[in-house]
Amino acid sequence: MAKARRLAPLLIAALLAGCGGSSAPKPPEGGPTLRLAIPIEPATLDPAKVADLPSLNVAHELYAGLTRFSGKGVVPDLAESWEPSENGLVWTFHLRDGLHWSDGSPIVAADFRRAWLRALAPRTGSAYARAEMQNIRGARRYRATGSGEVGVDAVDDRTLRVTLQHPVPWLDEQVAYPVFFPTPRGNAASGPFRLASRSRGRLVLERNPRYWNAAAVKPRRVVLTISTDGVDGILPRGIAAPGFPWIETARPPSGPGWRDLDTLSVHLLWLVTRRPGLDTDPERLAIARSLTGRTLATVVPPAMPGYSSIVQSGQSGAIPVLPPRRLTLAYTTRDPQAEETATRIQGELAGAGVTVELVPFATLAGLVRAAGPPARSDVDMVLLGWSAEFFDAYNILDLFPCASALNVAQWCDRSYDRLMARAVRTLDDQDRWAIERQIVGKLDDAMPAVPLAAQTEHVLLQPGVTGFRWSPVGFYELAGMTRS
User: Fold this and answer.
1) How far apart are CA 85 and CA 341, in angstroms?
2) CATH for 261-456 (3.30.1490.20, 1.20.1530.20, 3.20.20.140, 3.10.105.10)
3) SS3 for 82?
4) Cis link prior to 373 (omega < 30° from 0)?
5) For a pLDDT cut of 70, what percent of the chain falls above it?
6) Of 21, 58, 217, 459, whose Cβ has the fewest other Cβ atoms within 10 Å?
């Protein structure tokens, strides 16, 4: 099974990195101080409560989980290895020996269980507990009532066993989110850095010498500021967290030193399929194929692992002639590019005989309320994006099942839902991608949403600054950064 085979290089990486005990390499004495600009000040650093992307990213530097995002997957962090059972219902994580908080107290498996129950508790109000923990056995009831058995057990100090309601191929990616991290006591840190000071618009992080892999942490200190004056780098400007559908885009910055970063976010034009003129597949396909600016073959972004196995060839042939009609298009002016995109769509559809009335919303929240589902009665089309939270197309395809609370189009195909139920229970990557190819084919035939573009983020690094690592789901890694 592909998931099990993928663990082999992770185990090798863990052995090469050291095991975090008394024999672990000592952290370097020196190292540079790096000043980096972030888009907004984090709202909170509580791993259970972080929700905006800057808060998630800073929590990701201060605290550690079982795994850690790296590139297009995860690597071992506090867990040195893990394995799912043959049926995928039980995952067992094995912690490293000799793990400690920055204050010297030990980190054990019971700390994870305690933190997960706290995140699920109704009084905590954790957005990511709702988004990421619902597949753990008993989690839904516990989140609603604060009581009941939950499928997470500390077998001993170094063994954590997780039992699921149904198989989830990407649990090792989900546990890389801060909501799954052990809850700190006081100001103790478990990650590459610890918090040295915090003032308005400025956080100072210092290397955590008790982090299991402190020897690989190159900066002695990192200063995070919302000001861009005199900084060594400007980190990506996104603030919308992965796993939530409503994203804002930013204009590409210009000038030397800026780098483009591929993400797993897509910009979608939703077609409300309950509206006259949008309630048949041919009509929606005609709308989609009239948009000459369409840049994606399907809703799956090209950076997604398995893309070439999942995505089919695009539609071909003449664009059908649409009878004259009038449709409305809702968007938010909070997105700097949305008005340009809406105006372009308006012009392109005019050439196909469709008059488009633009309906702007001053706030993202206003647009979300109007989009529903169900969408407001005067809204036919909606410009809203989606930011994936892990490295599988299922995460985006899960917008479209009949009962999805995110299905703005209100499109419903029971055969689509049955394929989705198969995909989420298929641990082997190649087998799952084959199912997802069928799922994508159904979307391409019905076109409930037109994929306009894959979102791109940007980072600026000054000359001599190296080692910036970025995950397409939105997490950056600062531990390896340095300055020559």
Assistant:
1) 47
2) 3.10.105.10
3) strand
4) yes
5) 90
6) 21
